[in-house]
Amino acid sequence: MNVPAIPLTEFEDEAEGVRLEDFVAYMPTHGYIFVPTREMWAAASVNARIPPIPLKNSDGTPNVNDKGEQITLPASVWLDRNRPVEQMTWSPGEPLEIEGRLISAGGWIDRLGCTVFNLYRPPTIQPKSGNVDFWLNHVRRLYGDDADHIVKWLAHRVQRPHEKINHALVLGGDQGIGKDTLLEPVKQAVGPWNFAEVSPQHVLGRFNGFLKSVILRISEARDLGDSDRFAFYDHMKAYTATPPDVLRVDEKFRNEYAIPNVCGVIITTNHKADGIHLSADDRRHFVAWSNLTKEDFTESYWRKIYEWFASGGHEAVAAYLAGYDLSGFNPKSPPPKTEAFWEIVNASRAPENAELADAIEFLGEPDAMTLASLISAANGDFAVWLQDRKNARKVPHRLDECDYVSVQNPDSKQGLWRINGKRQVVYAKRSLSLRDRIAAASQLTR
């Protein structure tokens, strides 16, 4: 029996309807990927739309049974035998079928005879050279001297979606000044399906299908509260830079699967003082801030720019970014620290930080210390704040900003140290080596 292979179709295939070649069999869950949309179908759904497949002999004649009846296979069974894939991923720059490889937590591994299905869909826009002054002037009007770095970052996303940029863009300013407008043609250039938009609360949730994005835009909300601000900052570390080189995607109704960590993060915010948290030694965020207000723009301005987008502006910006010279842009280097960056850092510094620094100084800036020792050195009100259980999650972040980090006890499952008969967390100077931090913590137990 000879069943010829049928090539997989791309999303932009002009054929209509539902056909056998529109599916591959995803073996880990015995489901079927509908290639045009990358959605998962059940076997019963495939068989309901695709009639049984008649089998043929090697010479092309019908394969019949003893009664002379044509032998057929349900479409799902035929796909299991002829169109199986062992994994799926989302990987810009790779073909639809990634043959001879598998992806794991450590990255790609060679495996002959195996195939990974690529959920990535390239953009369909047709770039066309044209005047892009309308868009460039808008970027420069909003962000002045920071516009050049923003344009380079966006051009990198268009040209090298398979390569990670190790810092996020933070685009700040009042509502109604056109931050969304700045990104609209870029969304078309990378493909709208490769441009995800989520909230910070969504990012902190379980499901993270938004990681399958060339650009991940997070619309930052104010008043997250200290705990959520710190949690958001810590959570985003894995998304804004590598390592990790591979991320696990968890989506409803699908098994978890691995994808390369290549998403580029843009955070848009209207709040400088009570928005995101940034630490002084942060190397993962480029902050640009606009002092314009919505009153600086007229209705005709927005009408004209969107009319220009619709009449070829999207294609012109796509061509401009695709041809932009990136020879001087290093996506792995830390970004410049702008004035707006330092304003957010200073706004993130709570009054408790100064009191904490005073208590540490009173203790003689020891190599290692406990929360109990800090409480004994703190003034009355601040000592109460340190002992309040609702502040327990804030203390490690405040200490981190004072260059003290927690030290895990290698001989304890909980990582705690027994001091004066009580299990406690020990904090040591960040400047010490791990070995010296452990040694300093051990001294407290004696």
Question: CA-to-CA gap between the ends?
Answer: 78 Å
Largest β sheet strand count, sense and barrel closure: 5 strands, parallel
In DSSP terms, counting alpha (H) and pi (I) runs of 4 or more, how many helices?
Answer: 14
| Percent range of helical residues | 25-40%
Shape call: flat
Number of strands: 21
**Mean pLDDT score, rounded?**
91
Strand order, main sheet: write it out: 11-12-15-10-16
Q: Provide the gyration radius in Å.
A: 28 Å
Structural class: alpha/beta
Roughly what fraction of the amino acids lie in strands?
15-25%
Low-confidence stretches: 1-14
Description:
The structure is a single chain. This protein has about 450 residues and is of the alpha/beta class. The chain is about 35% helix and about 20% strand. It has helices spanning about 45-50, 75-80, 135-145, 145-160, 180-190, 200-205, 225-240, 300-320, 340-350, 350-360, 370-375, 380-385, 395-400, 435-445, and strands at about 25, 30-35, 40, 55, 70-75, 85, 85-90, 95-105, 105-120, 170, 195-200, 215-220, 245-250, 255-260, 265-270, 285-290, 370, 405, 415-420, 420-425, 425-430. Strand 13 and strand 14 (about 255-260) form a beta hairpin. Residues about 1-15 have low confidence and may be disordered.
What layout of secondary structure does this protein have?
Blueprint: E1 23-26, E2 31-34, E3 39-41, H1 43-49, E4 53-54, E5 72-73, H2 75-82, E6 84-85, E7 87-89, E8 97-104, E9 107-118, H3 133-143, H4 147-159, E10 168-172, H5 179-190, E11 195-198, H6 200-203, E12 215-219, H7 226-240, E13 246-249, E14 257-260, E15 264-269, E16 285-289, H8 299-322, H9 339-348, H10 351-362, E17 368-370, H11 371-377, H12 380-387, H13 395-401, E18 404-407, E19 417-419, E20 422-424, E21 426-429, H14 434-444
Parallel strand pairs: 1-6, 7-9, 10-15, 10-16, 11-12, 12-15
Antiparallel strand pairs: 1-2, 2-3, 4-5, 8-9, 13-14, 17-21, 18-21, 19-20
Helix pairs in contact: 3-4, 4-8, 5-8, 11-12
